[in-house]
């Protein structure tokens, strides 16, 4: 049992999964961060949320960050007499920018702050990826939030639970990131139902080549980003459920900007060496409720002990 009075905190990035062809495999952390602080108390559970979705989230043991904290403690073989959890949310929810992965990774990493303060061994990056991916069922967002930058992740389903792994990939310094986050929300679970259980060999072959090419484009050859971000496995199937995103994506690609759905959408992200988006794209985004900004690749999760949030 850990004593009361310990404080662990974390800073964790938003992320964009899939990046077009890399369904459930490729991810990219974005420079937009949630902050989580966890304190051990004498008894009970107290949860506070400010920022994105404050007022909409349950403030009890069902809160995703609390569930992640409990899971992290369990994995470390620790328990606590009581907990106070504070979340400062900057990552919009239900938009395809990895808010749930950030909540889980941030909660697990904040546990590391508690463990370190008590002299226990913290969870490793591999542990964080495994535990966080078990929540999500796939490692793309979770691995990006843990490692930062672009990642390639994969799943070994030969055992139970599946084993989730990931490696970081260097992002070419000329590639700029322009996420467009709409007001409209979409549930990942509902967006997954739109996908067929089976795909043709031809479509699988198409995506395998583009996903492999995308690793080359992201690291060495940004000039190949247009071809490398083509996808036939999930974006066309999801387009009718998020028509404004599908239209914005088409518009950007007409201007030779490599645009993809971010995760299950409805956010769209453009990856480009151009300094700015075409005026017509910005007009379309503004008229259709998208907030467009430029972000950089996000850092991997940081955690610390004894302070409110790591600086
Ligand atoms: N790979 C997932 C999907 C990302 O597209 O459904 C959402 O977390």
Lay out the secondary structure:
Elements: E1 7-17, E2 26-41, E3 44-51, H1 64-76, E4 82-89, H2 99-117, H3 125-136, H4 140-147, E5 150-156, E6 163-168, E7 176-182, H5 188-193, H6 201-219, H7 225-228, H8 235-238, H9 243-254, E8 258-261, E9 268-272, H10 279-287, E10 290-292, E11 302-305
Parallel strand pairs: 3-4
Antiparallel strand pairs: 1-2, 1-11, 2-4, 2-5, 5-6, 7-9, 7-10, 8-9
Helix pairs in contact: 1-2, 1-3, 2-3, 2-4, 3-4
The protein binds L-homoserine (HSE).
Task: Describe this structure in a few short sentences.
The protein is an alpha+beta fold.
Question: Overview of this structure, please?
Answer:
Its EC number is 2.7.1.39. It comes from Mycobacterium cookii. GO terms for molecular function: ATP binding; homoserine kinase activity. The protein has ten helices and eleven strands. The protein has 311 residues and is an alpha+beta fold. It has a single domain, classed as Ribosomal Protein S5, domain 2, CATH 3.30.230.10. Strand 3, helix 1 and strand 4 form a beta-alpha-beta unit.
